[in-house]
Amino acid sequence: xxxxxxxxxxxxxxxxxxxxxxxxxxxxxxxxxxxxxxxxxxxxxxxxxxxxxxxxxxxxxxxxxxxxxxxxxxxxxxxxxxxxxxxxxxxxxxxxxxxxxxxxxxxxxxxxxxxxxxxxxxxxxxxxxxxxxxxxxxxxxxxxxxxxxxxxxxxxxxxxxxxxxxxxxxxxxxxxxxxxxxxxxxxxxxxxxxxxxxxxxxxxxxxxxxxxxxxxxxxxxxxxxxxxxxxxxxxxxxxxxxxxxxxxxxxxxxxxxxxxxxxxxxxxxxxxxxxxxxxxxxxxxxxxxxxxxxxxxxxxxxxxxxxxxxxxxxxxxxxxxxxxxxxxxxxxxxxxxxxxxxxxxxxxxxxxxxxxxxxxxxxxxxxxxxxxxxxxxxxxxxxxxxxxxxxxxxxxxxxxxxxxxxxxxxxxxxxxxxxxxxxxxxxxxxxxxxxxxxxxxxxxxxxxxxxxxxxxxxxxxxxxxxxxxxxxxxxxxxxxxxxxxxxxxxxxxxxxxxxxxxxxxxxxxxxxxxxxxxxxxxxxxxxxxxxxxxxxxxxxxxxxxxxxxxxxxxxxxxxxxxxxxxxxxxxxxxxxxxxxxxxxxxxxxxxxxxxxxxxxxxxxxxxxxxxxxxxxxxxxxxxxxxxxxxxxxxxxxxxxxxxxxxxxxxxxxxxxxxxxxxxxxxxxxxxxxxxxxxxxxxxxxxxxxxxxxxxxxxxxxxxxxxxxxxxxxxxxxxxxxxxxxxxxxxxxxxxxxxxxxxxxx
Length: 745
Description:
Layout: E1 2-3, H1 6-13, E2 28-29, H2 34-37, E3 55-58, E4 61-71, E5 78-85, E6 88-94, E7 99-104, E8 110-112, E9 122-128, E10 134-139, E11 144-146, E12 152-154, E13 162-167, E14 173-178, E15 192-196, E16 200-204, E17 208-212, E18 218-223, H3 226-229, E19 231-239, E20 242-249, E21 256-261, E22 268-274, E23 279-284, E24 290-294, E25 297-301, E26 308-313, E27 325-329, E28 332-336, E29 342-350, E30 357-364, H4 369-381, E31 385-393, E32 400-402, H5 403-411, E33 418-422, H6 434-437, H7 442-445, H8 458-464, E34 473-485, H9 496-506, E35 510-511, H10 519-534, E36 535-536, E37 541-542, H11 547-559, E38 571-572, E39 575-579, H12 588-597, E40 602-604, E41 616-625, H13 632-646, E42 653-654, H14 657-668, E43 672-673, H15 684-696, E44 699-700, H16 705-719, H17 725-744
Parallel strand pairs: 30-31, 30-33, 31-32, 35-38, 41-44
Antiparallel strand pairs: 1-43, 2-4, 3-4, 4-29, 5-6, 6-7, 7-8, 9-10, 10-13, 11-12, 13-14, 15-16, 16-17, 17-18, 19-20, 20-21, 21-22, 23-24, 24-25, 25-26, 27-28, 28-29, 33-41, 34-39, 34-40, 34-41, 34-42, 36-37
């Protein structure tokens, strides 16, 4: 999902994330956000970051390395190519109407460069020459590209003509030549260019590496099927007369690789496994070594010896810079990915590095890229605090720990400062509850700051604070529900009796649920609602021995299908839906009429019960503060930052009411696009129904896989006719009580 209404992003982050908008100064060094400026870190027992590789003392002059951003040169909205020459950064990209090639300095000076008079619609890549000049690959529009607004565009009739332009050391356009071949495929969008002594040029895309001579003739080709191979090329460099390709692993658990190719034939000669960390990009140092941009370090790789040396530890800055191209500068490093809206830099600044207060955060459950990005963004946004992350799971990971180890740490009085609770809404709940490990956040919400109770969606807050305290701040959530035709069910919430009446009123050709959804499957999909309603995790108790739950078991047996898959689509009264993002609502009315019910109108019926809507909230990301936190000001600043940051993401539903409504308005107005740039529109009626659903939910989903399996095991004999629903409920109550006491009692 690509959001073209960039004002939404900036309005949500402005209060907390300084540095997103362009600044007037040449280089913008990350500044402290407003939320933290009024409460600088006190001198407590929290540790501070020790600068080992990001600070230096040369000739009694101390300097430190600091993250910075710089606006693109005047006229460029989206950068597509970058290189460095003669102390300047050369940037090519898209302007309001035409492509622009320009230069800029760290002092903020900029100037435009001449483009060939004809045929330049797009600038693909740039690289230095060996005499202070540089080369630029340009030409007609590619088959697939992002426009100046960041929306993906599909060019159905690509011309495929490319031109290699030569600029001298004074940045004047010299001679150039056209490439003989036409490159029209979507996988032939070249994003990196490399020049080698002797007149050879190398052009690389996601799936293709070609060698071209000075006459524009293709002399070698390497086609890379990354979908089947499992590695995608990220960067190319020539070092020690060897051609290297950085191949980034796409398969979980695989390592990134450095391929050595024959410069003449592109035949693969050798492979180096880069197993110690993820590597995003590559560049070339002045001493001939490759510079590797990793998740933890910026390293130098010696192609002659194979030795790898850490140049700096990014953890000292609390950041990751996942860019494919690294350009060493006289005063630091530049990082670049096509599509950038600003230049990203690490620059040496005079003076000692600020002593940041270190906060440790434990991530529980299935972590995500979003959490990594949030932490990185917070660490970049200010200079007083740094959050470091350790992931925990049932089994030890490569860079994490186990839940048992974390429990021991907490009992010993050495709890982390922060907790992050993650769920993909399908996985088991983490066995360490927020209410047992975190402080009540309601007093902080009531303290009169920017983040208050009113910032959180009302029913979401009410559901999470049902016990009188809020021990985790929700960032994002999903909704589990069942959809039904509105002719049969008028609004959210339905009882078993009402469903039976709906089945009678439906007429011929209808089934209760799709036939594949046999009783056990139906129970597995819907029982998390009853788990959320019946379980008190704080006290380790439950209540499944009710008439309502017995009626629900009977409903699962009566309405469950036979497990078959009919050849034609079925018209089922209930269809399970998990709403993971607002994008899911685009076209839902049309889908319901055309594919589900064969008639207009739908409603969110939920799981049958006697008291509420039958739909549930599942909190996918939330944060808590340990009572042993060593710096409460920094921890609260981090929570506020992340709450705002989560409101800018579109892959889950944001917990902030303002962010959710702003995002919904953008969808309604047609200002959101899919990855091909096509508008993704939510109808006003669908939005209104969704808001009504939000107002009806009062239950948090019981996401505990072990407990769900207990319920499924004890319900199976009832579905097979071996016991009554009451006996099954009694057995469930007995086993569930023991389990809950063991886990949370």
